[in-house]
């Protein structure tokens, strides 16, 4: 017992001293200051919402083709005696110009024979008329008042007249054949291809080449039903002076340079393509080799062009980056005053890579639409709102009344944010 007692006393004193020291440390140690600011939220970029008009534009592609293109073919046979110098691949031709002429000697002889036949028929008719007059006079001298048509030589006279009409028809046919020895251009245009030359014998209907008119070229543009509605066009549309079609801007590369031409939609196909489910609209460009050319460069047939069709217009809409629209019709807005994420439903009118056009009573011009991806987003979520300024710096929006730790404002910190991103 005498040995245990000193040990107990020693332990008790140690506990008393240790407890006093712990109490003293707790009392004397200053308490840590509590942070007044909430932890920073997810950093996101925002772009301002603006107001603008929406002009629907449909971008499609198509191949240029002439509105009129034909195969040049003769109506008679013969040997080619002349070919116009302009009737060559790529040549310019004029309406009424002789492209090809056939040897005409045989057809000139045919005209001579036909004229001879007409002269003979005329003489036969004159002779028959005289004989008919003599026959009628003889009947009157004999006192015969009722006689048959044959006695008055009426059938013979009618046959003579018919023979003259037949001879005149043969003459007209021979003269027509003679005129057809010259193949005439039916319109002003260009030669796509020539397949014959002087000395070649040709038959009726044989292709001599291909020509196309240069007054109008067309581009067939397949579009969807939705795009047709954006252009405010009905199926089976046809342009009239009081109801002109939408404007079309054509662009295409020519000689290494992108050229531009302006035309119009003049009509649409009457039915939907059963295979593609698309509707063809036909755009026209007038005088592609003249006033419709781009600085003298024509929109030539065979060229593949991009077509931008200017459609209907919707005025006074809000516009935000397309990336700020989520889940179809929700927009993410960064609240500058509270640094919180706000989610609103909007009436989305249209969107494309250039932006999203919508109507909303809760979103205003100047609000920052969030374009950064956010996972598990919810309304009221804490964020750090960043905005890229026109000069390239990044401005950090802080809640109202909040300053930096040294009393500096967010405008001063903006330069720091910009510098950190550049690094």
Explain this structure.
The protein is built from five helices and 23 strands. The protein has 423 residues and is α+β, with helices and mostly antiparallel strands. It folds into three domains: 118 residues, conserved putative lor/sdh protein from methanococcus maripaludis s2 fold (Beta Barrel); 109 residues, Efflux pump adaptor protein, beta barrel domain (Elongation Factor Tu (Ef-tu), domain 3); 142 residues, OB fold (Dihydrolipoamide Acetyltransferase, E2P). Strands 1, 16, 17, 18, 21, 22 and 23 form a seven-stranded mixed β-sheet that branches. The longest helix has 37 residues.
Q: How would you sum up the global shape?
A: rod-shaped
The percent of residues in helical segments reads: 25-40%
CATH class of the largest domain: Mainly Beta
State which percent range the strand residues make up: 25-35%
**Number of helical segments?**
5
- Gyration radius, rounded: 48 Å
Secondary-structure element pattern, one letter each:
HEEEEEEHHEEEEEHEEEEEEEEEEEEH
